[in-house]
Amino acid sequence: MKLFAFASLFFTALTIYAQGNFPALGDVHIEGQMVNGKNQKVMLANQNTGGAQNPIYIATADSTGRFSFNSPIPFQDYYFLRFDNGQVLNIVLFGADTVKIYTDTRNVTKFSSIVHSPHSVVMNEFLRSFYEFKGFEDSLRAVIAADPSKQAEVDKAFQPKAEYFYGYRNAFINTYQKSPALIVTLSAIDPEKEWDLYKGVIELLAVSFPTSPSVQNAVNHVNQLQREREARAFMEPGREAKEIALPGINGDTLRLSDLRGKVVLIDFWASWCGPCRRENPNVVAMYNKYNKDGFEVFSVSLDKSTDAAKWQAAIATDGLIWPNHVSDLKGWQCAAALDYGVKSIPFTVLIDAEGKIIATNVRGAELQNQLARIFGH
Q: Where in the chain is the domain with CATH 2.60.40.10?
């Protein structure tokens, strides 16, 4: 798995901290040695000042892989060292730091030793576990994509690994509540399903590292999410789902309310959406298993009018055999997507026979578990 600075993983959607003239802090001194790093360049960069495209300093190692540099930094924040092969090592810098780093450039995340920067040490310890877990999870997704019938087998293999990792994550959060290193746990928290934990970690960071632009971005981000959550209060379990009335494939208007009396999965997707297409085999499997019990799927496509043929082709290719396919072919301006506050896809809403919301954003094993609970098998 290709590794990036964690900041780029988490803060991609955030506004980059405004660049300008910042009062430089005391110079940081970084030195170390790289195995397999003969004459390689080492770049010090920060995601909030342009990242690797605008490095703060570039050092060149000698023939033994040793390097060192002194450089001012614009603010206390999360920085990263980027090596010639594109790998990165994340570090926390406060100004006037003296840090020693020893690494093997073949696998910087796995083989690195950081001295005199305890926050950086624990931060990278967590990242090692996180990347290992995500690699395992991605490998299982590939198995399901190749053979959807192995879903149960994959779930059985995944559960103990997931329980171990999330137990480790929670223990890490409890142990390092006062450390800037806590920021790396945000990549391992789903804000949709673990909102209180997500918000709580950012609140802790706002206390432990308030001058960090990355933390300030995170605070702004969570405040924006809070406003969006309040605006989506109508999506809470138990609320009645909003009506959807859109043209079907043949142009006739299909209504969500026409399925009253059925358990319905409202599935927002598009032919161009890779994650949607990868989830489709699971939805098909659930439809085949539970349709006779009263389960229906109401698919809302966010394709545009120029992609109408691709929409219909994707339905055929993926075997989406249920009749309830609708779209006004307006892309993200789809009336139903706007009504439901859809910001990304796939996005699903599971509603009961009375048209009331059971859960949102359910897919994969979670959808299977919800339907098994509802139908009893």
A: 6-109
Q: CB–CB of 117/99 below 8 Å? A: yes
CA nearest to 86, candidates 130, 42, 136, 134 = 42
- pLDDT at residue 2 is higher than 50: no
C-alpha–C-alpha distance, residues 103 and 101, integer Å: 6
**How far apart are the C-alpha atoms of 352 and 260, rounded to whole Å?**
8
pLDDT tens digits, residue range 160-182?
999 999 999 999 999 999 999 99
Q: What is the pTM of this model?
A: 0.66
For residue 224, give every residue at least 6 positions away whose Cβ sits within 8 Å of its Cβ, in sequence order, or none: none
Residues of the chain with CATH 3.40.30.10: 245-375
Task: Note the helical H segments in 147-212.
Answer: 151-175, 195-208
Measured CA to CA, the distance from residue 256 to residue 240 in angstroms comes to 12
Categorise residue 355: left if φ over 0, alpha if ψ from -120 to 50, beta otherwise.
left
Task: Identify the pLDDT of residue 40.
Answer: 94
Contact 120, 97 (CB under 8 A): no
Give the residue-averaged pLDDT of 51-79: 95
Measure the CA–CA gap between 55 and 144, rounded to whole angstroms: 41
Q: Sign (positive/negative) of CA torsion 235, 237, 243, 249?
A: positive
Q: Which residue has 């072919």 as its token pair?
A: 329
Q: What is the pLDDT of residues 262-288, one digit of tens each?
A: 999 999 999 999 999 999 999 999 999
Tell me yes or no: is domain 245-375 CATH 1.10.2020.10: no
Q: For residue 346, is the peptide bond before it cis, meaning its omega torsion is within 30 degrees of 0?
A: yes
- Taking only Cα atoms into account, the Rg of the chain, rounded to an integer number of angstroms, comes to 24
Helices 151-175/364-375 angle, 10° precision: 110
Burial 38-61 (b: 16+ CB within 10 A, else e): eebebbbbbbbbebbeebbbebeb
d(CA 173, CA 184): 10
Q: CA 197 → CA 192, 244, 285, distances in Å?
A: 10, 33, 33
* Whether CATH 3.40.50.2000 fits 6-109: no
Distance between CA atoms of residues 222 and 146, nearest Å: 37
Asked whether the beta carbons of 257 and 225 are under 8 A apart, the reply is no
